[in-house]
Amino acid sequence: MKPILIIRFVAHEGPGYFGTFLDEQAIAHQLLAIDKGDAVPKTVHQYSGLVLMGGPMSANDDLPWVPAVLHLIQEADAADIPLLGHCLGGQLISKALGAEVRSNPVKEIGWGPVQVAKSALAESWFGPIETFNAFHWHGETFDMPEGAERILSSAYCENQAYALGKHLVLQTHVEVLPAMIVSWCEEGVEELASVSQSPAVQLANEMQEDATLHCFFLHKVASQLYGQWLKNLVS
User: Fold this and answer.
1) Which of 71, 107, 108, 158 has an alpha carbon within 20 to 30 A of 235's alpha carbon?
2) Residue 93: strand, helix, or coil
């Protein structure tokens, strides 16, 4: 099978548990590091799936690589190659497919409950899972492209995930590892200080406390989602 292409935008927001899951399944994958200056490929047809990770920038930013990434997403969609987006990656997919990326009513940072939609489509992705404690770090959100269906929401962000055909688009971070949380808190210390009074933001020590246990249960959800997504890879 052709490898999965994973696009990373900053060094501290890599594949995380998704990479671990692929290694455990012995599925070939290739990392493209925008942060190291890797060039976006001209075509996506040599890959079985396209995965986009998170980052502190906006899908609306005027960055030199954004048009090429949006084009690659559009090509994957047209070729029925499955897309998987995490946070910024989900926002880029949404924008490429014609939806708006905009400010969320509040920044949502830290651990918080999310609710799975009561629908057949949501059940096909999440199985029997109805709610879980997810990790968040975002100030923007996406609208849903035409034909997409919301499958996950939270009290502070309505569109936590949607499905569209073979594509799975996440606002929340199911890929996070305990070490990533520590790194994000270090990188985002000024941001955390500026929004510390928000009811949707945790302090750094609160996020890191029991992170190993939280991630253990979160990765069970991630395994369910990733396992379903992998079924649609292009051979």
Assistant:
1) 71
2) helix
Name 45's Cβ contacts closer than 8 Å, sequence gap at least 6: 75, 79, 81
**What burial letters (b/e) apply to 64-94, b meaning 16+ CB within 10 Å?**
eebeebbebbebbbeeebbbbbbbbbbbbbb
Give CA–CA dist 8/135, Å, rounded.
18
One-character DSSP codes across 50-73: EEE---SS-TTS--TTHHHHHHHH
* pLDDT computed for residue 197 by the predictor: 83
Radius of gyration of the chain (CA): 16
| Bridge partners (DSSP) listed for residue 49 | 4
State the pTM of this model.
0.97
Provide the pairing of β-strand 83-86 with 161-164.
Answer: unpaired
Distances in whole angstroms, Cα of residue 16 to Cα of each of 1, 21, 124: 22, 9, 24
Q: What domains are there in the chain, each with its CATH number?
A: 4-230 (3.40.50.880)
| Main-chain phi, psi angles of 67, to 5 degrees | -60, -40
The token pair at 12 is 């501290």
Give percent above pLDDT 90 in the chain. 97
pLDDT of residue 235: 83
Helices (H), the chain: 17-24, 66-78, 88-96, 120-126, 178-187, 189-194, 204-208, 211-230
Using DSSP, state whether 223 is helix, strand or coil.
helix
**Count of positions (residues) in the chain:** 235
